[in-house]
């Protein structure tokens, strides 16, 4: 074995060790109680207007669904700037989010987590309790 082959062999060994380590770390991660699909930066919201407005709607929807942008839409009613407006569209919002259609896939925005979509649903199902 020449020097070059030794170098390659060493690289393969290190790569193998890293693969095993990351597999082990992955296994540990999945045994914790935190839901895996929850991005670390997205807090779990509570089923009320204040929390959902700040944590879900403002973060994922109003960059497009706001007054200034209304001209872009066929439907000017779809402006999520108040609780009243959101209540009117809530069922449709839920459907679009759950189906992965909003935010639009073409926008490349990741959108709210499944967990927070479920919290939004909880709020809708409660009859918009606050
Ligand atoms: C990148 C811009 C963008 C973002 C972000 C966005 N939307 Fe939309 N949304 C649109 C556009 C454009 C339309 C109208 C055209 C269409 O229906 O595809 C629309 C339409 C809708 C509709 C009506 C669909 C229908 O067929 O009646 C709903 C409901 C909706 N959005 C909900 C949401 C919700 C909820 C969020 C946040 C989770 C969101 N959108 C985020 C651009 C956006």
Write a structural description.
By secondary structure, this protein is mostly helical. It folds into two domains: 1-28; 49-125, no CATH class. The protein has four helices and no strands. It binds heme C (HEC). Heme C binds at residues 60-61, 63-65, 73, 78, 89, 92-93, 96-97, 102-104, 107, 109, 111-112.
Task: Describe what is shown at a glance.
The protein has 130 residues and is an all-alpha fold. The chain is built from 4 helices and no strands. Helix 3 packs across helix 4.
Please tell me the overall pLDDT: 78
Largest sheet: none
Give me the count of strands.
Answer: 0
Q: Please compute the radius of gyration using only Cα atoms.
A: 22 Å
Q: What would the keywords be for this entry?
A:
globular, single chain, mainly alpha, 130 residues, binds heme C, 2 domains
Can you lay out the helices and strands and say which pair or pack?
Layout: H1 3-30, H2 49-60, H3 83-98, H4 114-125
Heme C binds at residues 60-61, 63-65, 73, 78, 89, 92-93, 96-97, 102-104, 107, 109, 111-112.
């Amino acid at each position: 074995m020449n020097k070059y082959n030794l170098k390659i062999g060493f690289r393969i060994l290190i790569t193998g060790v890293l693969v095993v380590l990351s597999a082990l770390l992955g296994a540990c991660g999945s045994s914790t109680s935190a839901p895996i699909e929850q991005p670390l930066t997205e807090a779990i919201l509570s089923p009320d207007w204040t929390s959902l407005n700040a944590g879900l709607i403002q973060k994922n929807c109003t960059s497009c669904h706001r007054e200034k942008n209304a001209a872009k839409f066929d439907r000017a009613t779809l402006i999520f700037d108040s609780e009243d407006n959101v209540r009117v569209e809530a069922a449709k919002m839920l459907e679009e989010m759950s189906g992965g259609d909003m935010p639009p896939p073409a926008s490349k925005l990741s959108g709210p987590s499944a967990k927070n979509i479920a919290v939004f649903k909880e709020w809708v199902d409660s009859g918009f309790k606050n």
